[in-house]
């Protein structure tokens, strides 16, 4: 059976050895961007525990990206390269247009220093109707995990589902994840997006 992204992450962390694994955890806790993983949350964590923490905090796609960044920053270039190859990570897997924007100097869909999704959060919570279709596409692209997907689908009503999506997994996925959501909303809710873009 083919290995999953989670399996490759577990293996990569296991292969680091004690010294580099410790460096990896220190560097992870030193990250200033939200959401952050606190030192106390991973003290004594092994490679399995750390994998779960990374994926639950950043989603699978985000965990891969952050792992590669940290591996490169602690001098584990070969491990980073192998991990990239094993997971099939490339700039397109990080959100297509969003990755191109990052290469050009920043995320897409920013308005006055604030992401479109954040700026119009309340309107999106109240007015988006095709929540399940949006969730399907976010799961397909690896922006949200299967666990998050199941939790949100179990909620009653589109308002509660959208609130949970935006305040939980989308918050954790950062601007790259929000760029993917923006593109999905443009596809599924064009009239709403057109209206919001004029505000």
From TrEMBL:
<feature type="domain" description="Pyrin">
    <location>
        <begin position="1"/>
        <end position="90"/>
    </location>
</feature>
<dbReference type="GO" id="GO:0061702">
    <property type="term" value="C:canonical inflammasome complex"/>
</dbReference>
<keyword id="KW-0391">Immunity</keyword>
<dbReference type="InterPro" id="IPR033516">
    <property type="entry name" value="CARD8/ASC/NALP1_CARD"/>
</dbReference>
<dbReference type="Pfam" id="PF00619">
    <property type="entry name" value="CARD"/>
</dbReference>
<dbReference type="InterPro" id="IPR051249">
    <property type="entry name" value="NLRP_Inflammasome"/>
</dbReference>
<dbReference type="InterPro" id="IPR004020">
    <property type="entry name" value="DAPIN"/>
</dbReference>
<keyword id="KW-0395">Inflammatory response</keyword>
<dbReference type="InterPro" id="IPR001315">
    <property type="entry name" value="CARD"/>
</dbReference>
<dbReference type="Pfam" id="PF02758">
    <property type="entry name" value="PYRIN"/>
</dbReference>
<keyword id="KW-1271">Inflammasome</keyword>
<feature type="domain" description="CARD">
    <location>
        <begin position="115"/>
        <end position="199"/>
    </location>
</feature>
<keyword id="KW-0399">Innate immunity</keyword>
<dbReference type="GO" id="GO:0042981">
    <property type="term" value="P:regulation of apoptotic process"/>
</dbReference>
<dbReference type="InterPro" id="IPR011029">
    <property type="entry name" value="DEATH-like_dom_sf"/>
</dbReference>
<keyword id="KW-0963">Cytoplasm</keyword>
<dbReference type="GO" id="GO:0006954">
    <property type="term" value="P:inflammatory response"/>
</dbReference>
<protein>
    <recommendedName>
        <fullName>Apoptosis-associated speck-like protein containing a CARD</fullName>
    </recommendedName>
</protein>
<dbReference type="GO" id="GO:0045087">
    <property type="term" value="P:innate immune response"/>
</dbReference>
């Amino acid at each position: 059976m083919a290995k999953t992204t989670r399996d490759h992450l577990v293996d990569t962390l296991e292969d680091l050895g004690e010294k580099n694994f410790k460096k990896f955890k220190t560097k992870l806790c030193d990250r200033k961007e939200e959401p952050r993983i606190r030192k106390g949350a991973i003290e004594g964590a092994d490679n399995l525990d750390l994998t779960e923490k990374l994926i639950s905090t950043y989603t699978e796609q985000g965990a891969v990206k952050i792992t590669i960044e940290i591996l490169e920053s602690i001098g584990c270039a070969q491990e980073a390269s192998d991990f990239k190859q094993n997971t099939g990570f490339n700039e397109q897997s990080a959100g297509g247009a969003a990755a191109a924007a990052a290469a050009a100097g920043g995320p897409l869909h920013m308005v006055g220093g604030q992401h479109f999704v954040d700026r119009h959060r309340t309107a999106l919570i109240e007015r988006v109707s095709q929540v399940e279709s949006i969730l399907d596409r976010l799961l397909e692209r690896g922006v949200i995990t299967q666990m998050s997907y199941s939790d949100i689908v179990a909620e009653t009503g589109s308002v509660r589902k959208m609130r949970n999506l935006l305040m939980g997994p989308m918050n954790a996925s950062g601007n790259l994840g929000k760029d993917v959501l923006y593109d999905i909303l443009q596809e599924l809710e064009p009239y709403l997006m057109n209206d919001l873009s004029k505000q």
